[in-house]
Amino acid sequence: MRNMSNKFLTFILILSSILFLGLPSCKTKKGLVGENKEIYSVPFKTFSAKTTFSISLDGVSSFSIGGQLRIKTDSVIVFSIQPLAGVEVARAMVDDSGITLVDRINKRYFSTTFDEMKDNYGLEANFHSIQSIFANVPFAYEKSHNAQSPDFEKMNVTEEKFLLQRTYKGLSQEFVVDSVLQSGTILIESGEIRWNYMDFSGNVASRKFPVKTEIKLKQNNNTQTANQWPSSFMLTVSHRKMESNADMNFSYKIPEGYQRISLEEMIQMYIKNK
Hints:
Blueprint: H1 2-16, E1 46-57, E2 60-72, E3 76-81, E4 90-95, E5 98-103, E6 108-113, H2 114-121, H3 127-135, E7 153-156, E8 162-168, E9 171-177, E10 181-188, E11 191-198, E12 202-204, E13 207-209, E14 212-219, E15 232-244, E16 259-260, H4 263-273
Parallel strand pairs: 6-16
Antiparallel strand pairs: 1-2, 1-15, 2-3, 3-4, 4-5, 5-6, 7-8, 8-9, 9-10, 10-11, 11-14, 12-13, 14-15
Helix pairs in contact: 1-4
């Protein structure tokens, strides 16, 4: 059980760090061929998949753990960690207000709003951006709704591939697209996040969908929290048994008696057991 608790702590560090954002801006040419307007919209109302989360910290292979990913569009994202035949040991929930992390083994939880994450930890995050990454769609970071074609500058790379680029208050984004979104890159002064979609053998609501996604995050060593967080890690999300637009239960209440703890306490426990 102690080992599983350590794995959970590592996992929540990754989830709560998932959107260090930004990419240095660059000049682009306007004009585009073959743009598919469907790439800007989430292709489902609900989504569920059996999922394996594989995590590497500081370039060293760490562990893989099974579970389930469920999404209710524009409402909530649920990560359920189930290493043993559907028995949930941990849960992470993301909604428009923030992130809640529940450790069912040790009966404790952490909850914070996105504003608190920015003020207290310097983490720039919002629900719509997180949802878009997992739903395989480009997004305009500061907006809480689907991006549109005019939100981006566009540059042809080949006859079938193009770049979408935009800058917002020093934060820039870049997406590589052919018939579907292939990858995204974002950087800010504190670090960078890059994600790649692979194996589009899945089909969600009659649209090709990635079965595998790699999310790579690197924190600059000169940031305020560099002594607390791993400097880099990669989260690989692999799906199977995907289902969309079905009736799903997203209700959840933290059980009575669970202790609320701070993110600092979780970080310190992780560092102690690393």
